[in-house]
Structures are given as C-alpha cells and as structure tokens.
Design a protein that fits this description.
The chain is α+β, with helices and mostly antiparallel strands. It folds into two domains: 2-150, Jelly Rolls (Sandwich); 153-230, Arc Repressor Mutant, subunit A. 41% of the residues lie in helices and 25% in strands. The protein is built from eight helices and nine strands. Strands 1, 2, 3, 4, 5, 6 and 7 form a seven-stranded antiparallel sheet that branches. It starts with a strand and ends with a helix.
C-alpha cells in the first residue's frame, strides 16, 4: 500500500455517477479534506473480516473483491467492486466489525473517507441519506437473489448467470472477451461451488459453442442461449 495525493472531489468524475452525485460543493470539500487515498497492488488486503473500520471506501481505479470466510475457512465472494463503487459503509453505519474481507483483485487506487464525515453527511443531507438507503436496499436485494439462486439453480445455470453479469458490469474488449480476467477459483467462489464443479459447467458451455475461453478470459458466442440457461429455460 502506498499513499497518493488526493483527487479533488469536485473534479472526480466518479462523484457524478454514485451516491456522491447528491452532494453539495461544501459536502465534496468536506470529503476532500477528510479522506486519504492509497495505491494497492493485486493481492493486498484493505481490511479483514472482523476488523473495525474507521471509514468507508470508494474505488478510483481497479477492482476489489469482497468475500466472507465461512466456519470451515471456505471463501464466498459476494461482490466485485469496481471504479465508482463504495464499500465498507454498512459496518461503519452499524458500528460493528467488518463482516467481510476486501482484497485487491486488480491494482487499485482506493480512497478512505472517515466515519465522522459519513455520519455528518447523512444527518445534514437528506438526498444523500436516501441514496445510501437505496444502495443498501439494492445490495440486500442482490443478496436475497443470490440466496434464492443457490437453492434453486444448478451450477451450470449459476455459471451462465455469472458470465452475463460480468459482461454487464465490465463490458467487452475489441475481440469480444469480457474485460475482467478471474481465476477459475475466484469464479467458483462467486458461483458458490467447488472449483471442479465450476470447471465442468464452464467446459459444458464451451463445448456447446455458447462461450469461448482464452486463458482466464471468457467471451460469449451465443448470448440468447446463455440467457436461456441462466433462466433455467434450457
């Protein structure tokens, strides 16, 4: 981890696309004065499950994987946070220890904003408060959907769903491959299955000419069929 100079929040394009879009110039100045930004390399831990956080985080660049570790030591990736996303705020608001670990998946610049500033903005800016509630509700809805999928969808269906989600979140490059390269282990931890089971599902999709792979990268060849599989309509 290496500290870098703070980006002036009024000039940060990220603030136009997330909960910060409802902040006033004075609010943005307050964040700028009370934040610290750091460069993290791939594999570095920003915080561990069980840590008490002194602020929440916003990603200026890169990708961070958020995961929980179960009683048997098994990881479950619950979110891939990208540029513009904020994380760690729920633990700050609840004043409880972090319920997950944040690990850098792709070299990142991450800004930490103090707990005091978050509370001050919530109390003083109703529109910001509503945005935070909406964000929390969206994440809760995603969690409920994930739980339902675990119990109702097969590994192959969840794998198809993950590939579609990755395309939607990260887009594709000029060759049609999704612009994020995850290990098979990471993808299995998102799907919620053993790596071997995930690889079998991925191979099945590839052999059916629905997707193609190139190293860690995945491209979609037949999106209509992939959506059918993800929705259990195969």
């Amino acid at each position: 981890m290496k500290k870098v100079g703070n980006t002036y929040c009024q000039q940060c394009k990220i603030s136009l696309k997330n909960v910060f879009s409802n902040l006033t110039i004075d609010d943005l100045d307050k964040i700028y004065i009370n934040k610290s930004c750091h460069i993290y390399k791939k594999g570095e831990i920003i915080y561990n499950q069980g840590n008490y956080l002194h602020g929440f985080y916003c990603i200026e660049k890169g990708i961070v994987k958020i995961y929980k570790i179960g009683p048997k030591g098994r990881k479950q990736i619950i979110k891939l946070a990208k540029k513009g996303d904020i994380f760690g705020y729920r633990s700050v608001l609840s004043k409880e220890s972090a319920c997950s670990t944040a690990e850098v998946l792709e070299d990142a610049i991450v800004c930490q904003i103090s707990s005091e500033v978050l509370y001050d903005l919530i109390y003083s800016n109703p529109r910001f408060s509503v945005s935070m509630m909406k964000l929390a509700c969206e994440e809760l809805g995603d969690a409920n959907t994930y739980i339902a999928n675990l119990s109702q969808k097969s590994v192959k269906e969840r794998t198809a769903d993950l590939i579609l989600t990755l395309k939607e979140d990260f887009g594709t490059d000029e060759t049609g491959f999704i612009k994020i390269a995850l290990t098979r282990e990471d993808m299995a931890e998102i799907v919620g299955t053993a790596t071997e089971s995930f690889i079998r599902a991925l191979t099945d999709l590839k052999n059916s000419s629905i997707i193609e792979t190139k190293g860690k990268k995945i491209g979609i060849k037949d999106e209509r069929m992939l959506r059918h599989i993800a929705e259990g309509l195969e």
